[in-house]
Design a protein that fits this description.
Length: 83
């Protein structure tokens, strides 16, 4: 399983519509509306990198109002209770 965080920048005023479109896509674990340099952070899980490519370049890139997509693949995840 490949996990990634995808950060999105949106056009002002389109958030509600864009969130509804994102909910229709496969492989989305969570959607967070955040403050800071990005507007939305997605947590996604895929079995193959090809699926991540399809999600990013065919799914998200086709949604009007998403201005920037930044994908970050998780190399290692450390849970707080494991420390």
């Amino acid at each position: 399983m490949i996990k990634a965080y995808i950060m999105l920048n949106l056009s002002m005023g389109d958030t509600k519509r864009i969130l509804e479109e994102i909910k229709k896509l496969n492989h989305i674990e969570s959607i967070s509306v955040v403050t800071g340099p990005f507007d939305i952070v997605l947590t996604v899980s895929v079995d193959r990198l090809e699926e991540l490519y399809e999600l990013t370049y065919e799914g998200l890139a086709s949604i009007a109002g998403i201005n920037n997509i930044s994908t970050h693949i998780v190399e290692k995840e450390i849970l707080a209770e494991e420390s």
